[in-house]
Amino acid sequence: MVLFVVGSTATIAPLSWGGVLYPWRAWQTYVPLTIGPLLLGVLAFHEYRTEIPMFPHRILAGTTPACCMIGSLIHGLITAAVIYILPLYFQGVQQESPIKSAISAFPFSFLAVPSGSIAAFLVTACSQYNWIMWTGWITISLGVGSMSLLGLQSSRSLQFGLQVPGGIGVGVLYTIIAIPLQATMHVDDVGLAVGTLVFFRLTGQIIGLAISAAIFSNTYTTRASRWENLPAIAEQFRDGSAAVYAIGKLSSLDGYPLVKDKILETYAVSLHYVWIALAVLAPVGLLTSLFIGCKPLKNDEIGRQGFADIRLQEQNI
């Protein structure tokens, strides 16, 4: 457990501050980024050799379980990044209040609930899950890719409409990814396997927040370094690490419309690169889903409860 906590922290933390608090070449960044994966490698070796591993290797044995775990990690990464980036777009680029930005980002979150329910119904009705999973990955790929079109002059209908495919894809994958894993596992391992799947999704969410924040801050800082002849009041917007916190001060630039438009455009371009990164990553999840086998969903296993023995005894009586 100590190896896992220290290794994961040492891996994720420098991803969030690289290029923001410290340069990528600074020892504060590359030393923990080197030690972290090494510790996780030691943990993997220890888990493989120990008799009672924290993550039993039988849970990850086979193509389907491994692909489900990778897909869950990517799904969590994209979901957390979108939930973080969308309100930032509406507040930083469209200059909306926090409450209004939450309302503007509502279509993405709202569509995830019914789409997940519909996906579960389709699995029950069709006794198939592969094509539903592929549909989820395709829609989430199209969703995050199309969100890269969001800019300073985007219409209201475009802002809402581009959230639709991403919200549907996220909801579908929340439900579907666990199903092939459950169908593959022995009945006694289903609970542990699903718990491990949730762990991978939560890990992906942490990585997604760290990576999206790093991409945004680094892009913003790079573009802000090219600004020239800024008034003194606008100098506070040069720091990419403080760009998110400076959103509330954008109203102080109302007297400098050209400068304000330049800063808003920098926000939009920085977010654009985050969308591009997510759009590149989403097809990787689709690729992993192609290797997930189609197992029968009906299972006569009763676990260790012994109900079958009781029924046999009753019949003999």
Automatic annotation (TrEMBL):
Q: Which InterPro entries did the record assign?
A: MFS_trans_sf (IPR036259)
Q: Does the keyword Transcription regulation apply?
A: no
According to the record, the segments passing through the membrane are 28-45, 66-90, 102-124, 131-152, 164-183, 190-216, 273-294
> Per UniProt, which keywords does this protein have?
Membrane, Transmembrane, Transmembrane helix
How the protein sits in the membrane?
Multi-pass membrane protein
The entry's localization annotation reads:
Membrane
- What is a single cellular component term in the Gene Ontology annotation? plasma membrane
Output one GO MF annotation. Answer: transmembrane transporter activity
Q: Answer yes or no on keyword Zinc.
A: no
Q: Which domain of life is it from?
A: Eukaryota
Write the protein's name. Answer: Major facilitator superfamily domain, general substrate transporter
| UniProt organism field | Penicillium roqueforti (strain FM164)
